[in-house]
Amino acid sequence: MPNLSSETGSSRSAATHLAPQATPQPRRLRRLTAAAVALVALGAASACDSAADANDTVASGGTLRVVLPSLPEHLDPQRIAAAMDANISRLLSRTLTTYKAEPGAASSELVPDLATDLGRPSENNTVWEFKLREGMKWEDGAQVNCQQLKYGVERNFAATFDSGLPYAELMLKDNASPYEGPFGGKELESVSCEDAYTVRFRLKQPAGDFNYTVALPIFSPAKPGADADKEAYDLRPLSNGPYRVEARTAKDNVFTLVRNEHWSPSLDSVRKGHPDKIVFQVDENDPAVTNALIQDQGADRNTIMLQNNVAPNFLQQVINDPKLSQRAATGPTGSVRYFAINTQLVKNLDCRKALVYAFNKRKYRQAMGGSIIGDLATAMLPPGLAAHAKFDHYDTLVDSDGNEDKALQHIEKAKAAGVTCPDTISVALPDNDTIARYVKTMVDAYVRIGVKVNLKRYPADKYWGTIADIGHGNHLVYAGWLPDWANGSAVIPPLFDGQLVKPTGEQSGSNYSFLQNADIDKAIAEAMGETNAERQYKLWGELDSKLSELAVTIPVLYPNSIRMYGSNVAGAFIHSQFGAPDLAALGLKDPSIPVDVTSSAS
């Protein structure tokens, strides 16, 4: 899912999931450079130490401080489409299923959450039934029940929530008259409550892994009436998790979670609920935050970088110092960093290929800290997925500096066909100095082929919604993708399915290339309908290769996470579903150390 942060943490995920799916397999480790091997080895050691901390030395209580590059775009679960927001939401809004809060391969293991089990499919996987645990409560003391879960799912159909993920609308059977949400008093017939604690879903098409889909925040319950003021609810949703949001305004760059006294740890096997408070503070100055954590004084001992990596100028110091390296949660994010090419503005294939060939991936990665930060990307399916196919249509692995000659050849080819490629392009990115420093490496690369680049920075907390509107007018957009589960169905459909593209003023999901290609749509439908797992993986890999040949994106990197934390923080590891430290597992060794949000990392 997406977050706005430094390079490795800024990933959005949301998969269109329409037909029978193979059960997601554990993610495989990607092929690594020597430097990356060292990094992963370091991450493994850190994860083991952190896991021991979480089990043996973490204490209950105290205040954990979490530094973010920007505020979460949404906390209302039905509006969440970003990995960072989903990570925070897991502390507030429980789902029918979720993932273990444990390091390593266990973090990809699905477990019951609101539900008593992982669901009971029937009728060829077109009907799914879940039994809710009894005794779970909202922060106001009211019981969580099936009708509230149904209402939460129904909210996805209201126009108010077009910023969220598309699963509910795409997967659940619609009413005879298109359903438009619960606010007019109508109900969605395909979600029914068999009793106060049993919910049944009827799907448009078979889905063998629907229980993975309901682990997403959009399938959280909502209490009717609590959301009367939609914008206020987005800032402070009613909680049924271990924490609730203290009063806040839209202007605050700090917000605090405090204990939900009605949360019962005996009814929640995943969330640890260790700290009394969790303070989230915005600070996009990565060097200052990293330096403060290296110094490890006062409140910084209780602090962790959630989305931002260690600043490049401190990276070698942190990795090579045995003590500092033990305070860095590291590992592959399982995501891909890329730039989407706007096919509505750059319609000619040769013009798009010129942009791909000219991109200097080596300089981009070097600005981030070098090879230790991740492997160069050639495909949109990350190597950790079984569907990943090996191809290199633009010679990235041969010459990562780009190929000026081939780029110019494609510009001339377009010219010969009567098409003039743009000589000035605009590139959208979040308003973040760290990200801007990386993206600026594009400027020199494109000057070499006679293309001027204008960088357009947008407010970070509104960025994903901005680039999902076909009217934004940029030729390229900075983007990233973290699959919601380990299959090509969690990458290709949400990023390239033409049915997601909407008119100006509406959200086009995560199809940031605004691609509408009948052949691609047909191939997506074929892959979604394939029930043989190995055959489906092959189809996704072939589709990825075809999309590369269409030059609709520029895959740049398969990033690693390197997130530093203070010496009093315990339980830090990179969770496979968020590509970042799992907030549900974090705690403090000594709860008596106070937190002042004006500490040296500010």
From TrEMBL:
One of its GO terms (cellular component) is periplasmic space. Signal peptide: none annotated. Residues 1-27 are annotated as: Disordered. GO terms for biological process: peptide transport. It comes from the Bacteria. GO terms for molecular function: peptide transmembrane transporter activity. Transmembrane segments: none annotated. This is ABC transporter substrate-binding protein. Residues 109-498 form the Solute-binding protein family domain. Residues 1-14 have a biased composition (Polar residues). It holds the Pfam family SBP_bac_5.
